[in-house]
Amino acid sequence: MVVKRFMFIRPGETEWNRLNRWQGQVEIPLNVHGIEQAKRLAQFIRPLGIQTLYSSSLRRASDTAEILADALNTKPIYDQRLRERHMGEWQGLVLGEIKAWYPDKYKRLRDHPFEYQIEGGESRRQVMTRVQACFDDILARGGSETIGIVSHTTAIMTIVSMLTKNQDAFDLEFSNISVTTVAQESSGDWQITQLNDVSHLEGMPTLTLGGSGEYDL
Hints:
This protein is an alpha/beta fold. It has a single domain, classed as Rossmann fold. The protein has helices at about 15-20, 30-45, 60-70, 95-100, 105-110, 125-140, 155-165; strands at about 5-10, 50-55, 75-80, 145-150, 175, 180-185, 190-195, 210. A six-stranded mixed beta sheet has the order 3-2-4-1-6-7, sandwiched between helices. Strands 5-8 form a two-stranded antiparallel ribbon. Strand 6 (about 180-185) and strand 7 form a beta hairpin. The radius of gyration is 16 Å and the shape is globular. The relative contact order is 0.22.
């Protein structure tokens, strides 16, 4: 079965999201609000047509995926390549601390957002390489017309950029538990048909992270 649609889901809220701490690959679980956000999406997810659900193996993503998979009567397929960028020595810090404690390194990050490798962590380019390899495997495997992917801001930006051939995807914003849909048109081109949709929350608060270089906190 040929894949016609991908639905990218950012995990629900964690306490570190609320504190604006850079999570990277730290195993932070959903907080109570994040669990309720995931449950809210689960109430609406069955009619969305997701037949196969992939997920990052990080705790905040797997917590979200398990709740959604239960509503879909399926099991998530976990892949470490869908993890968020490893933030190295900056994991657990807030942006103000990074700017104050590592001003020169932070400047290099901002000057070279794709190539700069955080000490002990990854560059955005390295994340793109592993995420693209994972996505190519998912696309080749197929098996469903609509596939859901629970992942993180940098990974979602990477895949959306690759599919739509639009570098501006790295300037998009993604909220906790948002759904962004990319569908294939009759021409074969992929287009964003739904961006950062949180209508399923019906007014429940959610935090938003943009592509300003602040990454997935």
